[in-house]
Design goal:
The complex is a heterotrimer of chains A (103), B (666) and C (175). Chain A has 103 residues and is mostly helical. Chain A contains three helices and no strands. The longest helix of chain B is centred in the last third of the chain and has 48 residues. The radius of gyration of chain B is 30 Å and the shape is globular. In chain C, 73% of the residues lie in helices and 0% in strands. Chain C has six helices and no strands. Chain C is an all-alpha fold and 175 residues long. Classes of the chains: A mainly alpha (103), B mainly alpha (666), C mainly alpha (175). The interface between A and C is large, with 75 and 88 residues.
Chain lengths: 103, 666, 175
């Protein structure tokens, strides 16, 4: 079981990485760390795709990962631009202090 | 009880009788609303009088046309089917049989004369167009009432006259007392109308129709069934009869719902003459006459009618003895005379009741118009008889016509009241109503009627004595300014006086070798009880006539002695009679009793239970409560929007958790 | 993976997985974002290694180039640009939401594992797969430019939009 690496192991790794990323999103106050955690989550999803592509012998999964990477890159670019603008306006990277849209 | 329904003749202009005054109402009303003061007085006067004249001519012509037909035939016109829903059909239709023809003629003739008189009486009033439009509306409603062929349309007219009564009593509404009097009339009427409505519903329940003709067909076809139907232990005919009579009690001011009529004297005198003497208050009597086919099936209901009528006749007379306002005396006199009419209906003498209705219309309207003439002479500001006196030389026409009317009402032959009142007294003595005869109430009611006749003589002579005879007690400001009224007021007075003098000859009893024309004329539409056990002869009838004339003359002599020769008598009697006098003057404190027992509790219930409890507490509570609930919920829910992104992410996570749980344990 | 012995694959996998997890944990646990970014790079590299294990050679290269080489570098550059000082970086308070968050995450992990370890072996893929060329650049490119040409082009438009958006948002507005 431990030696014979199969689909389950890879998916388990993907799950672990995903949960770690989720914890980071929920727990950390620094917006940049949160961003990075989001990247971790995306990465874990990629891993799952590749694992399935390997298991099923279908390259569609890898093409999907390609698209996800593109999207992640765009998202990081725009997101960091927003963070930068926010930092310039409010001089903080603390998520808890950015709460204008509240009741 | 054979009633020939076979003969009907459709005549297409009958609808003009009620419709012409309606046109008058619309034109005058719209003209007033649109043009206000630019609407010329002469136009309003002429137009309103002409529409009523048109009705009068149509009614008289219809009467003549009817007289040319066979006795069982009558004229009809179907105007419009108003509503038709399943079983229920209510129509606008005209029924012009001998009874409604008689009523229409009386109403239109008296109404026309009063309209002409009113052009003089209201000559200086700023709201003349409003007055005449209301008067025309009243004529429309009253004529609808008397000419309708079904009880629903009759009720429309019934309500309509009540409405116009309210509008006209409170005509000078700027004075609160007048407005209150109008309200009182309408509300007290309403109480009676509730009973009337129950009667209508019961009628529909039993007969499945509201048309008078169809009701009679039903009864003719199911003679046994009607006796078997009971409601709350009473036979259905009695039930319907009593409830319809409750409506009549309200409309025609009998005990206990008469209290609005004296207050109604706050309205202009032509209104008092037309509505509260000649027409509206007679609606109840007409109703019983119209429904006589049902009432003869219930001697018990008619017994109730007779007793109420007789008691009212006596009771109202005792109040009228002490009143000092000239119109109040006449008001109580009206209530008393209406009691006579109901007495007539109750003993089974329907034609006699209608006959007295007709004669009373003439002389009572005349009495009111003469009183109005006197009031106008004092520039509308004096109605207290203690401040009048010796007017007979200053207002000769008014004096003479009022004298004629007074002689008519107290029953001096050959004036009208003698024949009609005597007919009633005679019929009540010799009544064929089995219930009345069983308790000897027929004789008791006769005695009540005779006493009431004496009282009538006394208060009417007192009225005319204090106003026209004796020493002048007129105040300084009016001395020298009192004169006779203009022609447009005195000519109707004269015409009515002629009527009051001559109408009586329509009903001369066989005892006096007459043919009792009106009884024969109305016989085809009136049913009668089976013949009484005792049939009294003419000699007894003649004796009774002598008795009643004697009583009348006694009254005249009494008053002459007390009031004309000795002016100090009123105060003397007031002091001597003490508490009796006060009770009578204060109308037996009935208004105060009603106020305490009925009005105040109703107001308290309305305020505390209906307003505070139901409206404010319950309804507002629910409505506001819904609002408050929404607000509270929203205030609770809004806390989800913290603005902190991680909180939202937390909720995402919860969602993911839920999905995972679902898939893991499926 | 026929020619490589099983135990070797296992060792490779566990090492790479361990580094990836370690890197991820370090990412979320550091105070200063730059250090986190460096560990992020480490994690990316480890994942790239696993991609190789999974015969996704091209994607592994792309992972290194795009993720580790561009995204992470971008992170580091922006962090440096912001010049964060001590006053920007406090420790976090332990709040109820955070605790619950951790608890929830752990339970999700548990459930994931439950799910995967139970059902992972039921999937069957297409029968003929040329394992020799599986995951090579040529193979991926062939598929990318034939079957998935449209998404490819749209991705390029997306990149264009992102470029424009990033420039506009991060500009200094001189008044």
């Amino acid at each position: 079981m431990l030696l014979n690496i199969g689909l389950g192991h890879f998916l388990g790794l993907s799950a672990v990485l995903f949960v770690i990323g989720m914890t980071g999103v929920l727990v950390r106050r620094n917006v940049l760390i949160v961003f990075m955690s989001i990247e971790l989550m995306l990465n874990s999803a990629n891993l799952a795709f590749i694992a399935f592509a390997w298991h099923l012998g279908d390259l569609t999964g890898q093409v999907f990962v390609f698209m996800v990477m593109v999207v992640a890159a765009c998202e990081v670019a725009v997101g960091l631009a927003i963070v930068l603008a926010l930092f310039r306006n409010r001089d903080t990277v603390n998520i808890d202090e950015i709460r204008i849209m509240k009741w | 009880m054979e009633f020939e329904l076979a003969g009907t003749l459709t005549v297409n202009w009958l609808v003009l009788i009620p419709a012409l005054p309606l046109l008058g109402f619309l034109v005058n009303g719209l003209g007033w609303v649109v043009l206000r003061d630019r609407l010329p007085r002469w136009f309003v006067n002429w137009f309103s009088c002409l529409t009523v004249a048109g009705s009068m001519v149509s009614a008289i012509y219809g009467f003549w046309l009817l007289s040319q037909q066979e006795s069982g035939t009558y004229l009809v016109q179907h105007v419009y089917t108003w509503l038709q829903s399943g079983d229920v059909t209510a129509e606008f239709g005209i029924l012009f049989d001998r009874l409604s023809a008689t009523m229409c003629v009386v109403v239109t003739v008296v109404g026309f004369l009063i309209h002409v008189y009113a052009t003089g009486y209201m000559a200086h009033d700023p709201a003349y167009a409003r007055f005449f439009s209301y008067m025309n509306l009243f004529m429309f409603a009253m004529l609808t009432l008397v000419s309708s062929d079904n009880i629903v349309m009759m009720f429309i007219g019934w309500e309509g006259v009540g409405l116009c009564s309210y509008l006209l009593i409170g005509f000078w509404y700027e004075d609160n007392d007048n407005a209150d009097a109008g309200k009182k009339a309408f509300i007290v009427n309403r109480i009676g109308d509730a009973g009337f409505l129950i009667g209508i519903f019961t009628i529909f329940w039993v007969f499945h129709t509201v048309s008078f003709a169809e009701m009679q067909e039903w009864i003719a076809a199911h003679p046994k069934q009607l006796a078997d139907i009971t409601l709350a232990g009473i036979s259905i005919a009695t039930f319907i009869g009593i409830f319809l009579f409750i409506g009549a009690i309200g409309k025609s001011a009998q005990i206990p719902l008469y209290v609005w009529l004296p207050d109604a004297m706050a309205g202009p005198t032509p209104v008092s003459a037309l509505i509260h003497a000649a027409t509206m208050v007679t609606a109840g009597i007409y109703m019983i006459g119209r429904m006589n086919f049902l009432y003869v099936l219930s001697p018990m209901a008619l017994a109730v009618v007779a007793v109420v009528g007789g008691l009212t006749a006596l009771y109202a007379g005792t109040i009228g003895l002490t009143q000092n306002d000239i119109k109040k005396v006449l008001a109580y006199s009206t209530v008393s005379q209406l009691g006579y009419m109901f007495l007539a209906m109750g003993v089974g003498a329907f034609a006699a009741g209608i006959f007295h209705l007709a004669t009373h219309a003439f002389f009572k309207a005349l009495l009111f118009l003469c009183a109005g003439s006197v009031i106008v002479a004092f520039h509308h500001s004096e109605k207290d008889m203690r401040k009048m006196g010796a007017l007979r030389k200053l207002m000769p026409v008014t004096h003479l016509t009022m004298l004629v009317a007074t002689l008519a009402i107290i029953g001096i032959p050959p004036f009208a009241g003698f024949f009609s009142k005597d007919e009633i007294l005679w019929q009540s003595f010799a009544s064929a109503n089995p219930i009345l005869a069983a308790y000897h109430l027929d004789k008791v009611l006769y005695i009540v009627g005779i006493i009431a006749a004496l009282i009538t003589a006394i208060y009417m002579c007192r009225l005319i004595a204090m106003t026209f005879y004796g020493e002048s007690r007129v105040e300084e400001q009016y001395r020298g300014k009192i004169k006779e009224s203009p022609l447009n007021m005195t000519i109707p007075l004269v015409l009515l006086a002629i009527g009051a003098a001559l109408v009586g000859f329509l009903g001369v009893s066989p005892a006096l070798k007459g043919h009792n024309l009106i009884e024969h004329w109305l016989a085809p539409v009136m049913n009668a009880f089976p013949a009484a056990e005792h049939v009294y002869g003419h000699s007894i009838e003649l004796g009774m006539m002598g008795l009643s004339v004697g009583i009348a003359i006694l009254g005249i002599i009494l008053i002459y002695y007390l009031y004309v020769s000795r002016p100090k008598t009123p105060e003397f009697l007031a002091q001597k009679a003490g508490w009796l006098y006060r009770v009578s003057l204060n109308k037996y404190y009935v208004d105060e009793i009603y106020d305490a027992m009925i009005v105040e509790p109703t107001k308290a219930i309305s305020y505390y239970i209906l307003y505070r409890l139901s409206d404010v507490w319950i309804v507002d509570g629910i409505v506001n409560g819904v609002g408050r609930l929404t607000k509270t919920l929203a205030e609770g829910l809004k806390r989800f929007q913290t603005g902190v992104v991680q909180t939202y992410a937390f909720f995402f996570m919860l969602g993911v958790l839920a999905i995972i749980v679902y898939f893991a344990f499926r | 993976m026929e020619s490589v012995p099983t135990y070797a694959q296992a060792i490779a996998f566990y090492i790479a997985a361990g580094i990836a997890v370690f890197g991820a944990l370090m990412v979320i646990m550091n105070r200063h974002p730059v250090i986190s970014a460096v560990y992020l790079v480490l994690s990316f590299f480890a994942v790239a290694a696993i991609y190789v294990l999974l015969r996704a050679h091209f994607i592994a290269a792309a992972q290194v180039l795009v993720y580790a080489g561009a995204i992470a570098v971008l992170f580091v550059m922006v962090i440096m640009l912001m010049n964060l000082g001590p006053r920007h970086l406090h420790g976090g308070r332990v709040t109820l939401v955070k605790t619950l968050g951790v608890v929830g995450s752990l339970s999700i992990l548990l459930l994931f594992l439950l799910l995967f370890l139970r059902q992972a072996t039921r999937l069957v893929g297409p029968a003929e797969t040329d394992w020799a060329t599986f995951g090579t650049t040529e193979a991926v490119a062939r598929v990318l430019f034939t079957e998935y040409l449209l998404p490819f082009e749209i991705a390029s438009i997306l990149l264009l939009a992102a470029i424009v958006g990033a420039i506009v948002l991060a500009r200094r507005w001189e008044e």
